[in-house]
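Write out this protein's structure.
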Amino acid sequence: MNLTRRGLVAGLAAVAPLASVCPAAAASDPELDRAAAAALRRLTASNQAARLLNDKAVAVLVFPKIVKVGFLLGGAYGEGALRQGGRTLGYYNSAAASYGLQAGAQWFGYALFFMNSGALKYLDESAGWEIGVGPSVVVVDQGLAKKMTSTTLTQDVYAFIFNQKGLMAGLGIEGSKITRVRS
């Protein structure tokens, strides 16, 4: 077994326990709806670029809390809600596995602003959307956020990471797989 395959198997083994502790959910999830709406309100209130994107986006997928743990092998998991016009269209989970020099635990939230119906359709029709595959995704950092205007919005999806806490070096959402779990 080559190193890449071994790493993938080890990473998936790290994520499996996270998925098994997540309860099966009903068709609606009022607690997740409230958490996603509150997280989006806080993000748009504190970040002008997020507010601009929210005004232009066709929908926003909000993961209020992702938990990431690792010691050489790592995994991350969280649940989110796809919001449009103040209501929830569906529920998704985000899972990731990693391996390498890492140790610690952290939690954070992220929001994906879908800027066109094609990107949203891709999310809806894919059997699990991997960030970095499919529509172009731009992670908005503070430098980019300061340069954004309504005329510079050219990408399919913009991502904001927020509320980072914990003790783990490095943060990214690349490699995450997003799967629709229920409507």
